[in-house]
Amino acid sequence: MGKYFIFSGILTLLLFCGCQPMVRKKKQVIAFSQCIGNDAWRQTMLEEMKRELSFNPDIDFLYRDAHGDNNVQINQIRELVKQDIDLLIVSPNEAEPLTPIVDSVFQRNIPVIVTDRKTSSGQYNAYVGADNLAIGKLAGQYSRTILQGKGSVGLVTGLSGTSASIEREKGFMQQIGDATAVRVSGVIHGGWEKNKAYLEMRKHINVMSQSDIIFTFNDQMAMGVKKALDEAQIKKDIKIIGVDALPGPGNGLEQIIQGKMFASILYPTGGAEAIRTALAIINHQNYRRENILATSVIDKTNAELLALQSDKIKQQQLDIDKRQEFITEQNKIYQSQKSVLNVLVVSLVLAVVFGGISIIVIRSNWEKNKHLEIQNSEILAQQKQIVEMNSQIQQAAEIKNNFFTNISHEFKTPLTLIIAPIEDLELRKDLTEEVREQLSRIKRNAKKLQRLVSDLIDIHRISKSKIKLHAAIVYIDPFIQQVIGSFKPLFKKNRISVSYVNKTSLKEVWMDEYLMEQVLSNLLSNAIKHTAASGRIEIILEENNFKDYFYLRVLDNGLGIAPSDIEHIFDPFYQGASSRNGSGIGLAYTKQIIELHHGQITVSSKPGHGSIFTLRMPIGNSHYEPAELADFDKGEKPLFQQDDLLEATRKVVDNNLSFRSNKSKSIMVVEDNDEIRDYLRSLLERDYNLFLAKDVQQANGMLKTHFPDLVITDIMLPDGSGLDILKDIKAFYQTAHIPVILLSALANEDTMLEGSKLMADDYITKPFNAELLRTRISNILQSRHQLKEKYSSNVEQFDSAQAEQVNDNDRRFLNNFSAIVESKLSDPRLSVDGIANELHLSRVQLYRKVKQLLDCSVNDYIIERRLKKAKSLMAEGLNINEIFSSVGFSSASYFASAFKKKYGQSPSTYKKELDKK
Predict the structure, then answer these.
(1) Of 20, 541, 744, 870, whose CB count within 10 A is highest?
(2) Under DSSP, is residue 709 helix (H, G, I), strand (E, B) or coil?
(3) Run of H or E including 843
(4) What distance in Å separates the CA atoms of residue 256 and residue 393, rounded to the nearest whole number?
(5) Could you read off the pLDDT of 115-127 as tens digits, one per residue?
(6) pLDDT at 668
(7) What region does 720 belong to: left with phi over 0, alpha with psi -120 to 50, or beta?
(8) How confident is the model over 868-872, as a mean pLDDT?
(9) Other residues' Cβ atoms within 10 Å of the Cβ of residue 196
(10) How confident is the prediction for the chain on average, in pLDDT?
(11) Residue 654 pLDDT > 80
């Protein structure tokens, strides 16, 4: 019964709401863009449109006036289209400029009506406007009637070149052309404006005052002509005929009634016709595409009647507007009352529905309370049992934990006794390959068990809060480098590039070195597991703006972590879909250690693009409890002392240079492995001067000061990649000529291809043949030497065969350098500084570059080019006195001296020998 009652109430509510109009129909929008005619004509047209629209209150009307500017009208049409209009009425200022924008509106399936003036393409739905040719003919016919076939006529045309002006003049002349006794006394251009017509009439008053009739192409110009005639005090009765016959103060109709104008040709605006056509298009009714408006002559015989009709129409429009406002107000009152009634009815229905629901709920609650009392007594009894069981569980957990700890430690003894003998056995030389493989497999799995046991013990110690911090000052850079160094064999084995960058001013931080080493080792181990061969791992140290926290980020470009695994990644024993034989202990252990340091660890990852683990750690030691700080009085001290780091740095710096001779070529070796770097030193120091660097930063510093003849670099470096060094060398004029050999353990094709794209001169893989390396170094340096000789001995550009011996940057530099020198050979002021400025280099950089590529100084090169040019001019028959100045020598004596020093004979002797030939 209750359910039926609720259903009846809801049904009543739905029926009531269903009877009400829920959605209001969207109003249709008509936009009008106007640009032609004077203010009065435009205002009259707008009033006609509004008068016609007053019978259609569901239409929104948007109006824009461009005031005769094509660009303004184009922008206004674009703005109107953005307002989701249903139809566009446009009165183009000029046909050609407005045609593209009107066509674009039409092509968007928005109906278009053009008024007064058509577009060039004809892409519109309808045209509304008067026939200017017919207006001209009517004016001509009326003038012939007034003159009775005899007299003179003056014309005041509109803007020169507009279609309206041309057609009206054409129609007028066609009508009076047949009357031989009617002549045109003069034609002036009034530009459609009253003031301009007045000024032109003043200029031509003597000619125009001979007319019996003056036909002006609109009423505004007619008023300007009348003003000029009155000021000139012309006594002759000249009849002025205009075009428009607009009602209202100051317009043509009033001028006719007052006798200031004789007549005007009615030029209908077409506002009402345009709106009627627009409504027919919107309502999908039949309409005419061409709507030509009728015209007639307005003079004193009908002007007053037309003015009276206009006033009457305006008065009726005011009445319509008042009634429309009244209807709107009544409609608002009706809608308000209707809304109130709807709310009251809905409230009543809801009250009845909720009343029935309340009765049902109260009855249901009374029955439930009985059940709850019974259940409450049962719960109290169960609660006592739970307390007793909890005590038993705690005892069992303590026993389990003790067993867990003891058995974990007990595992270590047999594992030690397994691993140690295996390692001893591996040292024996009489083992077969199969036995060695089996021993290796046993040892590998035993080591894995040992790591798992260690992780389990550490997790248990963390959970029991048995681990205590011993935070002390740690020099962060050597600490991280040390941890990275312990993983270097794995990096090389998996061909993974690793780099560390300290973006802070931090040199020392407070932390427990032992525990943080395990944290960083865990993160690096995970990164290696999930990073493919030839991948990259980055370690970045940053700090926040307030300098109270530092961030240690470990980034890799490996497999990434699935979104479903991210929220559980730090849970103990959790193994995600992408885990590789892990226990799920390491990251949980890492998180617990970071939290012991009052820090946080977070992870972000994108599958297929890699992961970023971020440690957020406080700076300083104020956040530690006294018991968490190391006691230095008991002999505890940091593992990485700053003094040790400085001493190691001094040793490295002392071993960075190996000098042989000033005449020997210099080679820079970039290698992070100390043993390989020392081996390369011993291999090359007998023949070359060496600069030794162990990372990217040190290599960049040496490049800026030493400019070696050749660079040998490893690809995987602690703070970046050898490919970055290669890219920097080849990118700049100062170093682009230096050949680079990549010496790397990465033998994959992708890395070799990338090195070739960066213009590496050679790529040698480790392990390498020492004789092969020496030979390739010698060949590259010999090729560069031959290139220098070619450029320093030949003025001409080198051909395609020689171009293969030099890279694009060197070729571009040499071409630019030789072109500048050649273009200014005749200038005695040509200097090294001037050439350096044009090449955007310093004087020192230019000297070094030319010396490296051409093995000569800039001045020597300039003199040689001048002398070669002089020889070619002598061969052409020029006089010696003309030659020395044309190749830039300041005097004939200086030229003769330089020429003899170079070629062993004076210019005159050389010239005589040429003449004999």
Answers:
(1) 870
(2) coil
(3) helix 843-854
(4) 115
(5) 877 887 888 889 8
(6) 92
(7) left
(8) 85
(9) 18
(10) 80
(11) no
pLDDT band at 651 (very low <50, low <70, confident <90, very high): very low
Phi, psi of 343 (to 5 degrees): -60, -45
Q: How far apart are CA 798 and CA 815, in angstroms?
A: 9
User: What tokens were used for 766?
Assistant: 């480790």
- What's the pTM? 0.36
Report strand pairing: 126-130 vs 600-606.
Answer: unpaired
pLDDT of 461 above 70: no
Q: Does residue 692 carry a pLDDT above 70?
A: yes
Q: For the residues 564-570, what does the mean pLDDT come to?
A: 84
Separation of alpha carbons 480 and 640, rounded Å: 10
Q: For the chain, how are helix, strand and coil distributed in percent, rounded to 5?
A: 55, 15, 30
476-530 pLDDT, tens digit each: 998 898 888 777 767 877 888 899 999 998 989 999 887 888 889 889 988 888 8
pLDDT band at 246 (very low <50, low <70, confident <90, very high): confident
DSSP 847-909: HHHHHHHHSS-HHHHHHHHHHHHHHHHHHTT--HHHHHHHTT-S-HHHHHHHHHHHHSS-HHH
Count Cα atoms within 13 angstroms, Cβ side, for 266: 14
- The alpha carbons of the chain give a radius of gyration, in whole angstroms, of 50
Question: Band of the pLDDT at 449, cuts 50, 70, 90?
Answer: confident
Query: Collapsing DSSP states into helix, strand and coil, what is residue 688?
Result: coil
Tokens representing 146 are 């007034």
Q: Is the pLDDT of residue 808 over 70?
A: no
Three-state SS at 33: strand
Residue 70 CB partners (closer than 8 Å, separation 6+)? 35, 93, 94, 97, 98
Question: In the predicted model, is pLDDT for residue 70 greater than 80?
Answer: yes
**Chain center to CA of 283:** 46
From residue 449, give the alpha-carbon distance in Å to each of 247, 413, 454, 540: 107, 12, 9, 32
Q: What is the pLDDT of residues 339-374, one digit of tens each?
A: 888 998 998 899 898 888 988 888 888 888 888 888
Could you give the domains of the chain? 28-124 (3.40.50.2300), 131-266 (3.40.50.2300), 471-618 (3.30.565.10), 666-790 (3.40.50.2300), 824-915 (1.10.10.60)
Q: State mean pLDDT over 844-853.
A: 78
- CA-nearest of 248, 223, 222, 241 to 45 is 248
Cα separation, 509 vs 478, in Å, equals 12
H/E segment holding residue 727: helix 722-731
Tokens representing 356 are 């029935």
Question: Cα-flanking dihedrals φ and ψ of residue 860, to 5°?
Answer: -60, -40
Residue 133 vs residues 159, 180, 783: alpha-carbon distances, Å: 16, 21, 87
Checking 304-311 for CB contacts under 8 A at 24+ apart, the result is: 304/257, 306/245, 306/247, 306/253, 307/247, 307/253, 307/254, 307/257, 310/247, 310/248, 310/253, 311/247
pLDDT at 861 (0 to 100): 86
- For residues 590, 593, 599, 604, the Cα torsion angle rounded to the nearest 10 degrees is 10
Name the residue with tokens 């002797």. 909
SS3 category, 253: helix
Q: How far is the C-alpha of 279 from the C-alpha of 285, rounded, in Å?
A: 8
The residue count of the chain comes to 917
- The total of other beta-carbon atoms located within 10 Å of residue 836's CB is 18
Strand order in the sheet with 666-670: 657-658, 689-693, 666-670, 710-713, 740-744, 762-765
Structure tokens at 759: 């213009």
Enumerate the β-bridge partners of residue 65: 34
Identify whether the C-beta of residue 679 lies closer than 8 Å to the C-beta of residue 637.
no
Query: Can you tell me the distance from the alpha carbon of 917 to that of 905, in angstroms, rounded to the nearest whole number?
Result: 17
Query: What confidence tier does 13 reach under pLDDT thresholds 50, 70, 90?
Result: very low
**Nearest CA-CA partner of 599 in 578, 628, 576:** 628
The predicted-structure confidence for 750-801, as pLDDT tens digits, reads as follows: 888 888 888 889 998 876 777 888 899 999 888 877 766 655 444 344 333 3
- The β-bridge relationship of strands 28-34 and 689-693 is unpaired
Find where tokens 């009206």 sit.
168
